[in-house]
Amino acid sequence: MARTASAYSSTIDGFKVESNYLPDGNITFCNVFAQAVMKAMSAALPTGQANDIANALYGNGTPGWYSVTFLDAQKRANLGYPTVALRAASGNGHIVVVRPKGSSITTLKEVLVAQAGRSNFNSKTINYSWPAEELPEVKFYTHD
Description:
A 6-stranded antiparallel β-sheet has the order 1-6-2-3-4-5. It starts with a helix and ends with a strand. The chain is an alpha+beta fold. The chain has helices at 5-14, 30-40, 50-57, 70-78; strands at 65-68, 83-87, 94-98, 112-115, 121-125, 139-143. The longest helix has 11 residues, at 30-40. Helices cover 26% and strands 19% of the residues. The protein is built from 4 helices and 6 strands. A hairpin with a 6-residue loop joins strand 2 and strand 3. The chain is globular, with a radius of gyration of 13 Å.
């Protein structure tokens, strides 16, 4: 798969997360959505729930994936590289897809993401994914 912002954006958009991957009661599908997007970008994520993915990526333990700062995460997504943000949590964590923004950022809350979860959206800033007090605990990973 070509690593361009337009190819990456089109891939994310193609999953129509706002009408697919909808929650079923208390069951949400953030991991399923993120895994599907990354697989389509030839950057398979580890299997399992968000916490399982977080544990597998931690310490750069999954080939092809490595940790980056939020600034580098947005830069990489802007170049078309598959990138995710996630936070492990008691019970279940949460994972989102970092999507191209078309501009640089200066603060964490400006990172642009798509997510499935309690609410699904295709393009909002990361502060819609986690409360402000949890944002510093979010980890970012990108794939070559």
